[in-house]
Amino acid sequence: MSDYNWCHGPECHITKTQSRIRGSGTNKVLRTIKIKHNSSYRSHDRYSMFNYFCGNSCLYDFIRLHLQSLSQNKMEKVQLEKQSGQIKSNK
Q1: Are 40 and 48 contacting, i.e. CB atoms less than 8 angstroms apart?
Q2: What pLDDT does residue 60 have?
Q3: How many CA atoms lie within 13 Å of 81's alpha carbon, on the beta-carbon side?
Q4: Phi, psi at residue 86, to the nearest 5°?
Q5: How big is the chain by its Cα radius of gyration, in Å?
Q6: Model pTM?
């Protein structure tokens, strides 16, 4: 398993910053940020969102893009649990 994750930000690979530019001469390309996995000295930070996102802007871009899908999946799961009797209503 690799010690690195690629940033999951949907726009990370097109943001022009010095750290994302790779190549030389006319062969320059933009690359997504590579993040060292579990690089923190604190054990509770190994599950941190910043093991998957290079910064807040990438994190919030991801949330904006996927929030509706995530909430829809949660609602479908609740509906299925109600139908199967796993969740009981408080009536």
Answers
A1: yes
A2: 92
A3: 10
A4: -75, -25
A5: 19
A6: 0.60
